[in-house]
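@channel anyone free to eyeball this complex?
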Amino acid sequence: MGNGSLAAPGALRWSATHAVALALALSAAACSPDGDEDEDVGESSFGDTTGTGSSTGSSTTASTEASGSDTTGDTDGETAAPNTRFYRLTHQQWTNTVRDLFERPVALPLSTTFRADARENGYMFENYGASLEVDQALWSDYRIAAFEVAELAVGDPTLLAVVMPPGTPEDEASARALIVAFGERAFRRPLTPEETEAYVALFLRAPTLYTDVSGFVAGVRMVIEAMLQSPHFLYRIESSADVIDGAIPLSEYEVASRLSYFLWNSMPDRPLLQAASAGALKGDLVAHASRMLADPRARATVEAFHGVLFQAGEFASIDRSATVFPNAPADLGALATEEFYRFVGEIIYAEGGGVYELLTSSKSFVNAETAAIYGVPGTFGDVLERVELPAGQRRGILTQIGFLASNASSVNPDPIHRGKFVAERLACLHMPAPPNNIPPLPVVEGQTNRQAIEELTEQPESTCIGCHGPLINPFGFPFEHYDAVAAFRMTDNGFPVDASSTVLLDGGTIDVANPFELIDALATSPSVHECYARHWVEYAAGRPSTDADEPLIEHLGAASMAEGLSVQELLLRLVTSPTFQLRSAQELNG
Amino acid sequence: MNKISRRLVLRGAGSVALGLPLLESLGRSKAARAAAEPAVPPFVIFMRQADGVASAQDTQEVGQEPERFWPRNYGALDAANVEGRALDELGDYLSQLLVVHNVNMQDFPYADGHARGALQGLTARGPVVAGAAGDSEADGESIDHRIGTALNEDGRESLFLYAGLPWGWLGGACISYRGSGNRKNPQADPMAAYASIMGLSGEEAAAEIVERQRSVNDLVRGQMAALLNHPALSAHDRERLELHRAAIRDLEFSLSCRFSAEQEALLDEEGRNYSSDNGDDILAATRAHLSVAALAVACGYTRSVAVQVGDGNDGSTRYRNPDSGQLMENFHYLSHRRQSHDSEGSIIPNSDVLHHYVDRQFAQTFRHLLEELNRFVTPDGNRLLDAGLAVWYNDLGNGPAHSPANIPFIIGGSAGGFLKQGQYIRAEAGEWEPNHNKMLNTLGSAVGLRNGAGEYLDDFGDPELPKGILSELLV
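replying in thread with the prediction:
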């Protein structure tokens, strides 16, 4: 609720088309900058990126010339990197798949919980294909869950009707027919004749194996229970192996599953399976993908992706000191979380925005308590409402409560973690792990928070200054205008806030005087757009990116910059890229 | 549609629960009975605490902190020896305990004290990648995994149970490893853990369940075999599919792996909030896990269990101050004596005493395990606890210094007379001399592991470490 504001920046929308070759100023191992001069970035002309941030807040974006053709639709060099052939369903995918298998609007009410999957270092999402596995504990969980689903399904007429439509005669021919139909949806491809016969045999034995259901229905229950324990259900399997022109084209069904598990985190629906069956999916991908992007399930996926990327899970543990912030709501974390997801949904879906809008839009959702923090005039109730945040103080997701307050102690903002987030997650700048025995932060007395951090981490000749000096702290200090509850402030401990810094970006340095200049630099940075695209490509592939992914990532990043791609358009480009229909001719790890 | 309560499902999948006062009712495998092995082969249940203990230490924050954990004198454990120390919570069990001082971990290059302690604790291994700090992985399997795969029927893996928030420091659950860099996933929900060990009792419906599962398993095994024949299968995919294939088990008749209805109700209630930052919830869930662990070893389901309490540095859990009734700062802060992963860094008053309070609560929780194991009487008239081992250990020796020396090992039971009892012993090594791997060798040997030459296990963990056991602990 501070007074003052930052001067409104000028027009910042990146409009020139250009092709940019990016070279990071940092090597992977060392943080020490070679210098602040422009790095050599190849033949493309690369304008002066050391901006002169002034107190009037003019933009510091560079101008560059187009040195190649425009990137729209350029797919040269895009190819598939090696990956697993067996993508075990994540727990969320399992739940969604069973929901969609029985065509319900919400997940089935099961009591089983699956043992948690470990996270992989260096990969932020839960779908790391090569490491998700079925061990004894999870096999047991799957067995019990399959039992529960099958028991539920035959006990509820609505669920049963999906597998066994009313009026189905109770004979072997119908059994075979429903096994074929259900099997194609459960395995996401037609059953082989051998598989069909094996399940028919199981069906016929079933009446002797259940005491509480009879005859035909026992068979249905048996088949459901068995199919849900099959590896063909539990894994999304890519078995195509024919190499053509140096890569392996996927089958129609494999593309259908890739598409649905990426955009919907669930199984293909009937139109997708029918198109695959008719051999008509790969040739009509744009239409299907567009249809899928408009479905609420895609919106859920997009929101969840951003929740992981922006570490929204940490908002819940926001906990402010009651002495310093007596008015901070006890449920600040919950409010920040709801605000975050509504913002993401609004920007991407209601407004068709992209990463630029996420970083710069001053819309948000507030209630009475958060309106007080933001300084939004007017009266509000308990429910979050859409508003314009004060334009001189707020610009995009990095000035919202969630990011700012979750990267803060209970008393002070934490520019180190704010800076680390921006550097790593938004600009994809890598840094090594911190050393052992990090000293605790000192109490901030008689100085600003920034000065305390500088004293601790930027001592000349220390090991800390190598990373903190040029890379971490500069991305965090501009946010010192926002305190630990994300309220705007011009002073800190009675001293004026110094929000200026020099950040490493796009192979050079940029001076910023305030958070808006930093945000605008990020929102118009080729490497930030490319980094954003990289996260999507990784999430789609279920693994960290490798060299083979670079052409696709570069094209998407460049298009995002040049054309102001919305997230939906970016996803459409991604799934219609040649790589999306291919496997590498090389297997994972040889 | 109503949500099915978990207990109904447990009944539906099996039948009436049985109480288990005596082990004669155990349906042990015919092979084991025929071989006339000891009625209960030795087992081990590990319970891991993070953040060290409130032992005597000199800290910048508080000054000279007196001894509040360890007994006073080496030798016999009696009430006077532990009075006023955290271990006095175990007063009723002193004659069944072996408390070992001077167990020292190796200063492997993990670049973080918590990684060094938590990941080495059951593995005696250094990092896969040096200097990775919070992203570290241990470079080898853990002893609980070795015991499970070597000594359980069918090589069943150890039971790995976890109470705490899922994604904390070091990725949450981090002490049990299948192999280098290959972390095992835990069971966090005690009821789900119970469901997975529970067998079927002798009612008619059980026969159908067993038969159905066998039919399904045969079909699935055939499918797995076909997938494993795929010509383009990478080694990596093969390994994962083999793990899945080995996980497929036929259900067995077992008279024994069931709690009584009352015990099931208690388990449900205590184990409810296993993913929490409230210390009361975490310790209740830990008690639930320990009850499941005791049942699992009692009924022969496994000989190896590891229970982890709190994440890599237990930096989320806030245990309760018994004096004020309020939740304290999170345990990691207390162990640092400061709000140190908070930017304030200010000293928490009396945090040495608060750390001691947490040690007491862990001691009380360990006591619950001893009680559970003592409930069962083996056919030869002894208590189940005496047939195996219950081990309460820590990642670190003390608080702010995060020392790898004097790692607490509180051992209940003697593994059938293998280890001394009722004693407080100083392990025979120089001060700070690493010998923790020898403790793991000793525990492994007690449970039945042997080395390549058929002698006591002496080479578990990093091959560079000196070999041997702590023979001073043996009877």
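from a first look: The two ends of chain A are 58 Å apart (CA to CA).
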